[in-house]
């Protein structure tokens, strides 16, 4: 990857398979927005980013220090996705999927934001998920350039489900509060989940009211970068029934979550 620094931006080139828009808007994160001029806007870790991709480069309007400390890791730019795609291509269906959309990267999100976001995602559609999250941030986050930060677990733990009524989150409000209390108290220990095998995280996260297998798997994949986590929704269930009735191929072992993202997008958009 080539990095060119200017006064107010970083330009990336020779970065391998990476599609900024596809990665930001494929259902793994809910706070990225694209404007009419093609610029993407997002807030991560208390930092605002404006970015745009053309055929040969990506321009990030940020300083070099923030790129090195935050954005390079967030966009998973140091993982060799070309090599992952090559390995997955030994399977017929995965070969078609990675050929169609090789630019998806797993976004390394904050675990708390990922957990809270996927609690909100339950039995919900993407526009409504984004609306609830936006209202959550505007109501309880801190205002910064470009918008509002995601409120901390500690902040939300001091509230009640009734306090969240303006979000129009419905039954999910009580789950958000329970999650906030268990995370802020350490009853659900994020550091231990990070440093333990994936099975431990699955058990710990499902101690939270309203967190079942799918929300736990999404949180482990997008919040803890456990790349073998495997969220199953209606689309993935169809994929498994139609293409893998005898189980997922061995070539995806260790990166089943990444493989799932390719298949999910391919099955949803190309059939």
Topology:
Blueprint: E1 2-5, E2 10-13, H1 20-24, E3 33-34, E4 40-44, E5 47-53, E6 57-61, H2 64-74, H3 81-88, H4 92-100, H5 111-120, H6 126-140, E7 143-144, E8 147-148, H7 153-157, H8 172-185, H9 190-195, H10 198-205, H11 213-222, H12 234-243, H13 256-270
Antiparallel strand pairs: 1-2, 2-6, 3-4, 4-5, 5-6, 7-8
Helix pairs in contact: 4-13, 5-8, 5-11, 10-11
What brief labels describe this structure?
alpha+beta; two-stranded antiparallel sheet; 271 residues; Endonuclease III, domain 1; 6-stranded antiparallel beta sheet; 13 helices; TATA-Binding Protein
Helix-strand category: alpha+beta
Side by side, the strands of the main sheet go: 1-2-6-5-4-3
CATH architecture of one domain: Orthogonal Bundle
**Distance linking N and C termini:** 33 Å
- The shape, in one word, is globular
Please outline the major beta sheet: 6 strands, antiparallel
Name of the CATH homologous superfamily of one domain? Hypothetical protein, domain 2
Number of strands: 8
């Amino acid at each position: 990857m080539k990095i060119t620094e200017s006064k107010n931006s970083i330009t990336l080139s020779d970065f391998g398979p990476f599609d900024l828009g596809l990665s930001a808007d494929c259902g793994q994160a809910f706070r990225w927005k694209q404007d009419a001029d093609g610029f993407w806007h997002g807030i991560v870790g208390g930092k605002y980013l404006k970015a745009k991709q053309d055929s040969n480069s990506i321009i990030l309007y940020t300083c070099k220090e923030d790129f090195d400390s935050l954005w390079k890791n967030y966009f998973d730019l140091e993982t060799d996705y070309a090599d992952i795609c090559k390995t997955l291509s030994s399977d017929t269906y995965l070969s078609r999927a990675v050929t169609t959309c090789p630019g998806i990267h797993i976004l390394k999100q904050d675990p708390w934001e990922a957990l809270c976001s996927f609690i909100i995602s339950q039995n919900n559609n993407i526009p409504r998920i984004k609306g609830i999250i936006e209202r959550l941030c505007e109501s309880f986050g801190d205002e910064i350039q470009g918008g509002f930060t995601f409120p901390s677990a500690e902040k939300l733990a001091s509230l009640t489900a009734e306090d969240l009524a303006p979000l129009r989150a419905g039954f999910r409000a009580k789950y958000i509060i329970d999650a906030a209390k268990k995370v802020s108290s350490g009853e659900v220990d994020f550091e231990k989940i990070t440093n333990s095998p994936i099975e431990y995280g699955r058990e710990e996260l499902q101690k939270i009211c309203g967190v079942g297998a799918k929300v736990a798997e999404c949180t482990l994949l997008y919040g803890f970068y456990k790349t073998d986590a495997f969220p199953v929704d209606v689309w993935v269930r169809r994929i498994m029934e139609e293409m893998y009735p005898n189980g997922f191929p061995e070539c995806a072992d260790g990166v089943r979550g990444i493989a799932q993202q390719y298949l999910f997008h391919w099955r949803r958009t190309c059939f």
